[in-house]
Design the sequence.
């Protein structure tokens, strides 16, 4: 190789330096100046990792004065190249010496990289093509947005997610009963809206005590990193005169924060796509004077296109407040309460008729008339005849029933806005088994309690709360914060005995306060060497994850997890089914949350609930109130909070004083029972079975869950992910139990890998493992580590060039092939929704030396298995000597690639038109009989169709990768 001053070279290892100029040759060393980056490099003449820059006829090159030259001829004199051609801006003929090439020239086209000697490693080309093909499949997949969640595959949750997540700006009320997964349903919808590009900016508003729970749920289950906004964060932004709500895409804040005018105004000014409001039943509405919180949410809901409201208590516990929530979703539709009541009354006969159908009863004439009136445009008599014909097969009659119910669902008053599943309609819940343990009151506690009653402090509520925790009273009496109470408290001894009896069982213990949880942990660990994990609010998020992981481990893990009250929020410990409530909360909702950590859909075992309590204390009163008055341990209590508000004063008085001289407690128990029976009866009468059927999706058979299970079991994803980590340079270590430890290394393609911290990460491809291990990341096609890794590959020039050897005795020696990867992708748009019709589509051509395309007959994988990589030095020589042939083959390939692109675009346009037209026709048909179909949904589909057609018409072809192959004898 001959070197001369002024020649232009590029660094093989540091292509980002730009174009280098040879400025010095001294002995056996070369000096290159990279003016674009201001860097200088010294190389050995014998082993310089540099490539001479040489452009070809037909190329466009840029001068140092920023004008472009179309190359018509290339002349080399005294080892320096001069390009002859036409200036594109003026059209005049001129020449350009290589010395005056622009320093910032980069080789973006694969062919330019190939001829400049920037040839990728063999496996990188393979990875790039695999990434393109997998990206194409995922963008087209009907499962898009639903694959990546760390959740059980529960039918009603995924039905709601599938039904709502694909809507434009959905406005719905999620009103499932406690334990049925409203937060998961909301998370699935949010995730799907984000992944498919239907939403980008999301605001979640909720009570302050639920912020941490939502933050963890969104992060752990859906890999969505929300930012909690509070006073401090907002005030910090105001110093720089910045609207804090415009600094993040995903924001979570409390309703109390938005009560403050300045924060509310800035939240309203920000541009949001989706609003989620949890605990929406706390929004008090009155026609004359709505609450401030309601007005805040109303203003936001009027401004934000999509709205999800979450509540576990819909209309049965306040019909007017139920109307107020629907009014937030569609104020034009629900403008007057009395009109709403009248309309609802019209649906009651239909609901009665549906109940007859569901119970396989003969339809009464009154029921038939109600159905016929609602389905006035349809001839229902043939369906009635089939249902009434008892001689027919049950399956045939049932099919007619389902068809009739399905038609009624489309006309149902709030069926499109409201989703309400109940435990009565959803199967799969465990049985709750109560084991209450009455224990004697120690003398130490008796003395401390006696003194505390003589010198009461605080409000009556505070006295009631204190009375439930005799260990705290004793500590105050002793004037010490030590855990000496554990030495004589019979609950500790009983707990140790239970743990020893259940050696092979995981046990979850919940106590109200962190100090109590820590004391229990110490007692179990020091007295019997029991393996215990502890979980409380004083721990960081990482420490909580470690504690939860220690408890979840099957082998060598903790037998016991002790949680403070925060342990009853946001975590899933359903792999355990032994629950100890070391003390009891006064609020029935908190009790239900505690039990709900184990009693949840997907739990496969009955729940054993242990409630140790001290006799002759407030603990005994509270135990019996829950057990005898509410049946709260063995049944869910949707009535609990309402009843508590009704009898709260009497209950607190009793707990604070312990005074039951006149049988007040027995009266309280009876009053509670009466309220409970009345409210439960109202709830059952208020059950809308038609709505429940619509919410569960049982009449809309879907292959979604089967497809998700199949996707979980396919090896494609695991194989690709491991290949990605290998090629990028991420270290992998098998940790057992279906887990893998990933760590960054010094020889990665980039300085960091998306989603992978410096400390590494433990990951799994197994859904079951992920559900039991909060510390393990669940990898899927939609995990940020994978989607980010794919984006990293495709947004760079990694793997765009390759040269390989084909060892095949049946081919003439030195036979050549050119593998070209073109891509068809919509340009100038960030609308991810178009990708369901036109994903980024690779077109692979395999050309022989005569330009014939063999790609249809020889698959990528089968061809790739026959190829052998070669070193970069030989690759450069082969590419340089074959430049004329490669140029000609690329030119000859364009008509074939263009023809294939035309077919792809025609198919995409046809599918898009059919799909969107079908969606429009369905919504327009439903709109005629159901006013809940919004006009803006239909108009959105019209606009989307027009916009997509314009984009498809402007779509172009791009050459993304080149692999040149030469055959040899094996």
Sequence:
């Amino acid at each position: 190789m001959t070197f001369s001053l002024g020649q232009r070279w590029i660094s093989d290892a540091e292509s980002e330096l730009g174009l280098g100029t040879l400025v010095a040759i001294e002995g056996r060393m070369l000096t290159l100046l990279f003016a674009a980056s201001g860097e200088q490099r010294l190389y050995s003449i014998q082993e310089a990792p540099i490539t001479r820059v040489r452009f070809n006829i037909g190329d466009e090159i840029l001068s140092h004065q920023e004008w472009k030259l179309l190359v018509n001829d290339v002349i080399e004199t005294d080892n320096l190249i001069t390009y002859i051609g036409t200036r594109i801006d003026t059209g005049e003929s001129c020449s350009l010496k290589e010395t005056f090439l622009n320093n910032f020239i980069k080789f973006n086209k694969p062919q330019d990289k190939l001829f400049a000697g920037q040839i990728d490693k063999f496996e990188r080309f393979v990875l790039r093509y695999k990434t393109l093909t997998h990206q194409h499949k995922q963008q087209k997949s009907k499962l898009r947005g639903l694959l990546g969640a760390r959740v059980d595959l529960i039918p009603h949750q995924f039905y709601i997610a599938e039904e709502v997540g694909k809507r434009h700006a959905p406005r719905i009320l999620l009103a499932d009963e406690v334990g049925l997964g409203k937060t998961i349903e909301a998370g699935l919808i949010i995730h799907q809206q984000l992944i498919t590009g239907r939403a980008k900016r999301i605001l979640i508003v909720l009570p302050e005590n639920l912020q941490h729970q939502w933050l963890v749920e969104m992060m752990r289950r859906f890999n969505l990193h929300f930012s909690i906004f509070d006073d401090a964060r907002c005030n910090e932004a105001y110093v720089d005169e910045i609207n804090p709500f415009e600094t993040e895409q995903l924001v979570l804040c409390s309703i109390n924060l938005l009560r403050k005018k300045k924060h509310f105004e800035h939240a309203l000014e920000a541009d949001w796509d989706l609003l989620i409001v949890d605990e929406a039943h706390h929004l008090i509405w009155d026609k004359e004077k709505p609450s401030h919180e309601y007005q805040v949410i109303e203003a936001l809901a009027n401004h934000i296109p999509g709205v999800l409201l979450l509540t576990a208590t819909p209309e049965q516990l306040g019909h007017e407040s139920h109307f107020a929530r629907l009014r937030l979703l569609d104020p034009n539709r629900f403008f007057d309460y009395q009109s709403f009541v009248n309309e609802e009354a019209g649906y009651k006969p239909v609901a009665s008729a549906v109940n007859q159908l569901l119970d396989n009863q003969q339809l009464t004439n009154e029921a038939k008339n109600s159905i016929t009136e609602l389905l006035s445009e349809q001839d229902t008599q043939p369906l009635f005849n089939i249902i009434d014909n008892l001689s027919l097969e049950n399956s045939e009659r049932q099919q007619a029933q389902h068809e009739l119910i399905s038609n009624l669902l489309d006309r149902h008053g709030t069926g499109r806005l409201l989703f309400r599943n109940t435990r009565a309609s959803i199967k799969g819940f465990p049985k709750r088994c109560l084991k209450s343990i009455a224990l004697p009151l120690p003398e130490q506690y008796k003395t401390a309690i006696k003194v505390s009653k003589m010198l009461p402090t605080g409000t009556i509520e505070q006295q009631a709360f204190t009375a439930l925790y005799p260990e705290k009273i004793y500590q105050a009496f002793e004037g010490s914060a030590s855990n000496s109470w554990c030495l004589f408290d019979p609950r500790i001894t009983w707990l140790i005995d239970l743990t020893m009896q259940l050696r092979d069982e995981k046990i979850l213990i919940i106590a109200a306060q962190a100090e109590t949880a820590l004391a229990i942990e110490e007692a179990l660990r020091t007295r019997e060497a029991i393996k215990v994990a502890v979980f409380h609010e004083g721990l960081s998020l990482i420490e909580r994850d470690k504690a939860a992981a220690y408890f979840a481990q099957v082998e060598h893990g903790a037998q016991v997890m002790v949680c403070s009250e925060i342990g009853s929020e946001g975590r899933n410990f359903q792999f355990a089914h032994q629950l100890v409530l070391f003390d009891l909360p006064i609020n029935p909702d908190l009790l239900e949350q505690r039990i709900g950590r184990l009693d949840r859909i997907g739990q496969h075992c009955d729940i054993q609930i242990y409630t140790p309590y001290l006799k002759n204390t407030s603990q005994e009163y509270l135990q019996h109130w829950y057990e005898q008055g509410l049946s709260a341990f063995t049944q869910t209590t949707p009535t609990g909070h309402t009843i508590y508000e009704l009898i709260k004063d009497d209950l607190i008085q009793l707990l604070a004083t312990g005074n039951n001289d006149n049988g007040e407690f027995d009266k309280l128990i009876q009053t509670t029972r009466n309220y409970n029976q009345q409210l439960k009866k109202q709830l059952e009468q208020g059950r809308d079975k038609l709505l429940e059927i619509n919410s569960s999706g049982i009449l809309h058979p879907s292959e979604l869950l089967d497809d998700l299970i199949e996707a979980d079991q396919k090896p494609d994803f695991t194989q690709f992910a491991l290949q990605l980590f290998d090629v990028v340079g991420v270290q992998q270590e098998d940790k057992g139990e279906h887990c893998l430890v990933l760590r960054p290394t010094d020889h990665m393609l980039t300085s960091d890998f998306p989603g992978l911290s410096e400390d590494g990460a433990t990951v799994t491809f197994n859904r079951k493992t992920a559900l039991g291990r909060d510390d393990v990341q669940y990898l899927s096609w939609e995990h940020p580590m994978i989607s980010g890794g794919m984006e990293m590959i495709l947004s760079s020039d990694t793997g765009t060039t390759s040269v390989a050897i084909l060892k095949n005795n049946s081919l003439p020696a030195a036979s050549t092939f050119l593998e070209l990867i073109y891509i068809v992708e919509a340009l100038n748009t960030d609308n991810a929704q178009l990708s369901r019709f036109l994903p980024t589509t690779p077109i692979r051509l395999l050309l022989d030396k005569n330009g014939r395309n063999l790609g249809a007959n020889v698959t990528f994988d089968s061809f790739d298995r026959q190829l052998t990589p070669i070193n970069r030095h030989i690759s450069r020589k082969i590419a340089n000597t074959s430049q004329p042939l490669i140029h000609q083959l690329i030119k000859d390939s364009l008509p074939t690639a263009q023809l294939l692109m035309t077919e792809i675009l025609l198919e995409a346009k046809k599918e898009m038109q059919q799909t969107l037209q079908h969606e429009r026709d369905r919504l327009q048909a439903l709109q005629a009989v159901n006013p809940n179909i919004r006009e803006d949904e239909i108009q959105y589909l019209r606009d989307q169709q027009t916009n997509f057609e314009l984009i498809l018409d402007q779509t172009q072809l791009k050459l993304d990768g080149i692999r040149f192959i030469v055959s040899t004898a094996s």
Observations:
- The chain has a mean pLDDT of 87.
- The CA atoms of residues 733 and 823 lie 35 Å apart.
